[in-house]
Amino acid sequence: MTSNTRAVRPKRDPKGSVSGIASQPGDTLRALRTQRGWTLSELSDRTGLPISTLSKVENNRMSLTYDKLTRISRGLEIDIADLFGSSSQAAAPQQVPTGRRSITRANEGYAIDTDNYGQRFPASELRQKRFTPIVAEIRARSLQEFGELIRHPGEEFALVLEGSLELHTDLYAPARLEVGDSIYFDSNMGHAYIAVGDATCRVLSVCTESEPPESLRASYQAGASSARGATAPAASRPAPPRRRAAG
């Protein structure tokens, strides 16, 4: 995807209050990098993102697409949801919630604007999700306007909520989808969501999470064992659930 400099910002409801979480991923990223004593060059090596890109993100001068969010979270060995919270939340001990739920009202959720998408992330406060739901308004209306195809680990499901959509990939002919149509695909393929016509195009996209880094996975499993210890005998404890990776 082509770079842009549109700022990440929380949305406000009609009464003027901020919906979702007000902190910005760039602030959290800078705080965690400083806390760990890493230079931008070291963070670049860990994430595979250029130093110039990371600098723009830290200064909230570049929007974070989903693929950048995943690369940064894996490089920092944190949950994606930590980037939407405060730096103190990201540094807090890992915990595995039980019986959890999250309700996101209409027009709520953490909002990120890019040239190609206007995205809202429902349930953005929940950590260790096995998938990430995104409600997106598709803005690009041609491949030329969209730029380079994007790709990221995992699999993806898309359901058209409004308008008409073309999904372009580097392995298949473009797929035309209308309201109510859906598609499930390997998001390791290069792909682009393109709006058809002049009408608004909105899509519900659900992206699976790839296998977390070993150190983060170990902390999840340790937290899960601790949470189950008071209620389940050792012999009857089920193995921690594994996230399915695309393959």
Write the layout of secondary structure elements.
Elements: H1 25-35, H2 40-47, H3 51-58, H4 66-76, H5 87-91, E1 110-113, E2 117-121, E3 131-138, H6 143-146, E4 155-162, E5 164-169, E6 175-177, E7 182-186, E8 191-196, E9 202-208, H7 214-229
Helix pairs in contact: 2-4
Characterization of the model:
The chain has 247 residues and is an alpha+beta fold. Helices cover 26% and strands 21% of the residues. The protein has helices at residues 25-35, 40-47, 51-58, 66-76, 87-91, 143-146, 214-229; strands at 110-113, 117-121, 131-138, 155-162, 164-169, 175-177, 182-186, 191-196, 202-208. It has a 6-stranded antiparallel sheet with strand order 1-2-3-9-4-7, with no helix packed on it. Strands 6-5-8 form a 3-stranded antiparallel sheet, with no helix packed on it. β5 (164-169) and β6 form a beta hairpin. α2 crosses α4 (66-76). 30% of the residues are buried. The model is unreliable at 1-22, 86-93 and 219-247 (pLDDT under 50).
